[in-house]
Amino acid sequence: MFESRLRLNFLSLILLGCVSPSSFFNLNTDDNSYVACPPHQTQALTEFMNEFDSSHCNLSDPFNGVWCDNSTGAITMLQLSACLSGTLKPNSSLFRLHHLRHLNLNQNNFISSSLPSEFGNLNRLEVLTLSNNRFVGQVPSSFNNLSLLSILNLSQNELTGSFPPIRNLVKLSVLDLSNNHFSGTLNSNSSLFKLHHLRHLDLGSNNFSSSIPYEFGNLNKLEVLSLLFNDFFGKVPPTISNLTSLKELYLHHNQLTGSFPLVQNLTMLSVIDINHNLFSGTIPSSLFTMPSLSRLDMRVNNLTAGSIEVYNSPTPSRLEYLYLGHNNFEGKVIGPISTFINLKVLELSYLNTSYPVDLSLFSSLKSLLRLDLSGNIIYPASLDTNSKIPTNLEMLLLQGCGINEFPNILKNLERIKGKIPEWLWNLPRLTSVIVTNNSITGFGGPVDVLVNSSVKILAMGKNCFEGAIPILPVSINIFDATGNRFTGSIPLSLCNYRSLTQLMLGYNNLSGPIPQCLSNFTFVNLRENSLEGSIPDAFYTGASLQTLDVGHNRLTGKLPRSLQNCSSLEFLVADHNRIKDKFPFWLKALPNLQVLILSSNKLYGSISPPNQGPLGFPELRIFEISDNKFTGSLPPMYFVNWKAASLMMNEDGAVVVGYGPGVLLGLVIAHLTATYKPEWLIKIIGPNKRRNR
């Protein structure tokens, strides 16, 4: 049965309530395949659209619309992405479109709706995509009625429960349940292993906790298998070698142990990613000569292999991306790797091998774009070799290698000590230079040596740079010069860099005023300098600033009221200055503020909210106002809407330290004992486990 597509752009959809459905769908076109949809179909679609706020619809999205069967006129395909906001109710008019075969409602905002069981009534569906919609609760058992489905995508929601009941969906070729909260075990009798036509299976970023069942080996049509970011444990079953059609395998961020199984018969594999597990033993040498393997990631495991062996092969390794860092290699691993001539990215940081790394070995890797040798011992003699670095190199990481002079391997020039040589900035594809935690003293060449470079990320913190802040490349996005010896004022020219978003100049010897353009950045760290004057009152509405740290300077004046315009601000730190102002109750207008540190200033006046109501700041995680001249009391009622933490009162009536989930907050009357320590915040709040592959 043929179908014709009736294109409905969003402008048309918004006007659905303003025109008669019959006149709208009866398009005036010379294409005879277009026909009018039956009135009951158009009416159901109109009513469905009217159930939601569609004011955020993209008026020009070419992928949204409705398709009607050119024989019956019935709506068979509906695609409305990133458009609707509201609650999807069980009595929605959507469930009257019984002829639907393809339904795509991804990236809408269904405001914590449960998945209605009425989806099971759309039993002609072949494709159902409901990703990124904030659906909650469990998958209803009625989904088992959708026996014609070949594609089911429920990813990036808030769904819970065990593996959903989909035993009857035997035609499924694509199943994506990633980025939800599914939990429990995967047993050998799970309905999953009845789906023998699966080609793409993604269970990543959930909370499944079990060993990996042997029955995965029965899904022998799988091309993509992703179990990343779960709590799978134990050994990978040898039956994984039965998946002879497998092209991509993602097992990273689990608790898998033992040796990685032999998979040399999986000749179609192009990606193996098992990083952040507990694998041990040797790396199977057959991995390096697999005919299709281009990406191998074994970072952060307990691999304790001796020397890597590469058997003679009629064709060179196809590996382009190799990640072996953060393991415990006991033998020589670099030499054999240097024969992988197709490598583009090579990550060998913190190998914990007792053998120094010979930099000269990498000169044969002509396609290499990124090389990470951080945390390794560099073979001293290789610093003076005449070998050349691959000219296509875009990123070189040597953090924590203890290098106090620039190695001549980077260029066949006279011996250069203490400065980054001028030629480096002429590499045509160089985008990132990260040389933190070394002893570099400056830049070779003229003062504008960086200007014409293509570098976007320049991280040179914790070195020995002196003098004025350098003139940066026009392309710069991130500039980190923290912990050096820079002097003078912050250049006003920094305000002219349109792409610069992160500026880190903390822990230097800078003086003078702060430039007026802080609104241009998302992250600003000027901590522990000798800056003077006031914080500029020049934050425009809609500024993207998220972090501002100006602590430990000599700043005076008042806190700028225009900070209220920075609705994205999460961290505001201005401790140990000379700011003279009243408590900034007006900052409670910032919906995302998590850290507010104003200790050791000249702040004064009542700390009690003017209206005697709650203090505000519901998202605060660290709050420090000690060593000021505040007056008044802080009864617990002021903190009733602090959902980020819990407080309690001691027998003296003082509010004392309270702990909430993922929160550190210390507060005592007139003196706050919590100290701003970023490592606490990182450890306690922690990174978000749910990530996309």
Description:
The protein is mainly beta and 693 residues long. The protein has a domain at 513-685: Ribonuclease Inhibitor (Leucine-rich repeat, LRR (right-handed beta-alpha superhelix), Alpha-Beta Horseshoe), CATH 3.80.10.10. Helix content is 5%, strand content 19%. The chain has five helices and 44 strands. The strands form eight sheets. The chain has a 25-stranded mixed β-sheet, with no helix packed on it. Strands 29-31-33-35-37 form a five-stranded parallel β-sheet, with no helix packed on it. A hairpin with a 5-residue loop joins strand 2 (65-69) and strand 3 (75-79). The longest helix has 12 residues, at 39-50. Residues 1-35, 412-417 and 645-693 have low confidence and may be disordered. It is a single-pass type I membrane protein. One of its GO terms (cellular component) is plasma membrane.
Number of helices: 5
The overall pLDDT, averaged over residues, is: 80
* Uncertain parts: 1-35, 412-417, 645-693
User: What structural category do the secondary elements indicate?
Assistant: mainly beta
Taking the sheet with the most strands, its summary is: 25 strands, mixed
CATH H-level superfamily title of the domain at 513-685 = Ribonuclease Inhibitor
CATH class of the domain at 513-685 reads Alpha Beta
Indicate the CATH topology of the domain at 513-685: Leucine-rich repeat, LRR (right-handed beta-alpha superhelix)
